Amino acid sequence: MKLQLSYLQEKVINKTIKITGSKSETNRSLLLQALFPNITIENLSNSDDGEVMQKGLKKSTGEVDIHHAGTAMRFLTAYFASQEGKEVVLTGSKRMQERPIKVLVEALTDLGAEIAYVKEQGYPPIKITGKKLNRSKVSLPANISSQYISALLLIAPSLENGLELELVGKITSVPYIKMTLALLDQIGVNTQFEGNSIKIKPKNEVKDTTLVVESDWSSASYFYSIVALSDVGTKIQLSSYKKNSLQGDSVLSEIYKDFGVETSFSENQITITKAANSKLATVTYDLSNAPDTAQTISVTCLGLNIGCHLSGLHTLPIKETDRLAAMKTELEKLGAQVDIDAESLTLHALEQMKSGVSIDTYNDHRMAMAFGPLALKTKLIINDAGVVSKSYPDFWKDLGTLGFDIIEM
Ligand SMILES: O=C(O)C1=C[C@@H](OP(=O)(O)O)[C@@H](O)[C@H](O)C1
Ligand SMILES: C=C(OP(=O)(O)O)C(=O)O
Fold first, then answer.
1. Is the fold of 3-21+214-408 the same as that of 23-212?
2. 3-class SS string, 103-169
3. What is the ipTM for the molecules in this complex?
4. Which fold has domain 3-21+214-408?
């Protein structure tokens, strides 16, 4: 599906949007529910990633295909490895077969798991023969993806002696690890995270618990961008959000102050308002704790004619696409000058953007969604726009509600 986007009305928006649950919290909660069936979950994500996780957890044998879902790939690897009697081949999209899984497979093998690579060493697909994992201490690199750590933590309470992790190297995407620990705390599991060590106590059963998933802050990022790129007075209400979020991407409410966007929290929603026009020439952020916001922020800066230097982006090359390379290519199509290295992106402020440019999305939902808001500033085309369903199937419908003109080509 190819979409042409523009915005023809007055750029003062006043609308309310309901976003479904965080896909990160959803996929963690689903795994915990599979281990402890007396957990109930509210406000599940309606994303493809949430759906493949639910389907995967129902299987005991045969092939489990998780498509593009990184969390499902990593979390289900740990889950099946610890389930005696289950034997599956866990696979995913072509891109998923290029996203490394070795760190997790090695850690699980050290704990007693039986996992074999079906094609290329270190990458999915993998054949998992579920086993009782009989060891409880392992160390693993922490600077590649926090999802390997969360995967181990999620199965930890079901292991006979719990788990002790030693994290080696600089720990990346820390809020996602803390989110996992917070959910374990909510179901009554004893956790301890000090320095580079995490300890989880075993738990045979948990009391009846309802996990209420907060709506997705990464999805909210696109509305922050829309508010920043529209005129002063724009107001968008988003539900259901709370001030004390488990999601690191909630840092957006601070970052977007730089772009004149204010956030107010009421009982279960946020109101984001364009309060002023930013006078900044350039901004600098370390996004190692919020890597999924990098694409949104760089497009906001492009649209506002602000330069940016974004660092802490060392995990971006192994996500749905190599996001650093993809961003450079697509931002430059619009006329920008962009420099990238292994962990950062620098965008030079651009006075006049090109119009009518076709943006490629590289099977990456965030490429499509990050560029969408730019239609407030210039007409553009989004190729393969259906990719948004990975995390936010209603994205284009919701942009239509805000007054975006969307024509399927
Ligand atoms: O644990 C999670 O739910 C996630 C962790 C992050 O990945 P990395 O830890 O690989 O950076 C993030 O980018 C991803 O969208 C979701
Ligand atoms: C990186 C992402 O997802 P995952 O790693 O779970 O595929 C994302 O949603 O931006």
1. yes
2. HHHHHHHHCCCEEEECCCCCCCCEEEECCCCCCCEEEEECCCCHHHHHHHHHHHHHCCCCEEEEEEC
3. 0.99
4. UDP-n-acetylglucosamine1-carboxyvinyl-transferase; Chain (3.65.10)
The residue ranges of every structural domain in the chain are 3-21+214-408, 23-212
Q: What is the pLDDT of residue 349?
A: 95
Query: CA angle, 289 as apex, 332 and 327 as ends, to 5°?
Result: 10
**123 pocket-lining for ligand 1 (C-beta < 6 Å):** no
The string of pLDDT tens digits covering residues 188-245 is 999 999 999 999 999 999 999 999 999 999 999 999 999 999 999 999 999 999 999 9
CATH architecture of the domain covering 23-212: Alpha-beta prism (3.65)
For ligand 1, mutation pick of 73, 173, 181 (most atoms within 8 Å of CB) = 173
Query: Distance from the CA of 406 to the center of ligand 1, in angstroms?
Result: 30
pTM: 0.98
Q: What are 248-290's pLDDT values in tens digits?
A: 999 999 999 999 999 999 989 999 999 999 999 999 999 999 9
Contact 227, 7 (CB under 8 A): no
Residue 62: band (very low, low, confident or very high) from pLDDT cuts 50, 70, 90: very high
Cα 369 → chain centroid: 13
* Both structure tokens of 63: 């092939």
Point out the residues that are catalytic: 292
